[in-house]
Amino acid sequence: xxxxxxxxRDMIDAVSEPGRGPAATPExxxxxxxxxxxPLPPSYRWWLAEYGRGRAGRAEIASVIPVDSADDVYESIxxxxxxxxxxxCFAVEPDCGDSYFFALDRDGGAGDGEHPVVCQDGTDGxxxxxxxxxxxxxxxxxxxxxxxxxxxxxxxxxxxxxTPGVLLDNGVLVYGPDLIGERNETFEVARYxxxxxxIGDDSxxxxxxxxxxxxxxxxxxxxxxxxxxxxxxANGDLVTDDxxxxxxxxGPLR
Length: 254
Description:
- This protein is an alpha+beta fold.
- The protein has 2 domains: about 5-145, SMI1/KNR4-like (3-Layer(aba) Sandwich); about 165-250, 3-Layer(aba) Sandwich (SMI1/KNR4-like).
- The chain contains 9 helices and 13 strands.
- Strands 1, 2, 3, 4, 5, 6 and 7 form a 7-stranded antiparallel sheet that branches. Strands 8-9-10-11-12-13 form a 6-stranded antiparallel sheet.
- It is elongated.
- The chain starts with a helix and ends in a 6-residue tail after the last helix.
């Protein structure tokens, strides 16, 4: 999925992160950095222009240092050690922790210039996938920090690896980790429908629900938020069995 920058801003602004912007990076400085390391993924580029510096979990995110000696500044994305062939290191945990890289030899699947994020284990040096975009990296880190693992079920986890939820033109909102816990608590989903999770809403009083457990964790059902009970499948309307495909199509509601 293409990162939803509106939702990304909402998620970032909901988190009080010491050391984070505002420290907006001027456009000429970003272009100068790109002249040194190549085109930067759009959602990371956007983050630089909006926030400029900060952390995700324990990892310090590289910034752009608009000075002549930027290649020698550890925190700069243009520091000489950060670009190694097809890997660009954009975040590092302290004390020999994990490092996070853009995999420049692959795209994030949406054809929008994003690159997948991979992690290099600080202990054994092994590499494993983390997210499909920088926005997804921030989302996964936020989910982990809130005790949500990578998502309440595989479909949402897959979405969050690209974007912190989606807000569509028709009012459909699929939640990111900054909203999903609060919304489920508000409507007492764990009490009335313990096997289900509220993943979003239609902005008109209807909730979007998916199962937490079992084999059927692909179908999305819509039910009035005032009628939540354990019989969501029987009482609600089937919306889709392909969440990401449905969102790409604009989230049509019957």
